[in-house]
Known about the structure:
Elements: H1 15-19, E1 23-29, E2 33-38, E3 42-46, H2 53-67, E4 77-81, E5 85-90, E6 100-105, H3 114-119, H4 125-138
Antiparallel strand pairs: 1-2, 1-6, 2-3, 4-5, 5-6
Amino acid sequence: xxxxxxxQIDFGPLKEYLQSDDVTDISYSNGGQLWLRTLSKGLFxxxxxxxxxxxxxxxxxxxxxxxxxxxxxxxPFLDAEGAELRLNFVHDSxxxxxxxxxxxKTPAKIRLEKGKLLEEQYVDSMCFRTLQHNCMWRNR
Length: 140
């Protein structure tokens, strides 16, 4: 599920969101606000009492340790990127309402749907057929 870079990190109560193909982003801030961005519902807040400042701080320190970096007042920003996850943390010395974090899932599988692309006019049908043909050619 996760990159080898993050294999030693215990994502605990966030694991269910990371395992969902529908979830693209997880945000945490303001001393306990947990937000999810999904493909089906967009952005919305969820209640999960197990995701709190103490847990997020522990997660940040695990990430920092796995990368051999510091995460403290002197180094208040921590960024980590693997093949399928990108993690960003802001230390509570900067984020005044407690630690802040964003986890973005960046899987190799592209999440494009023909109907949505055409409906929102990102591409026309001719362009979509060309993209589809090129992608199939590359995957051979």
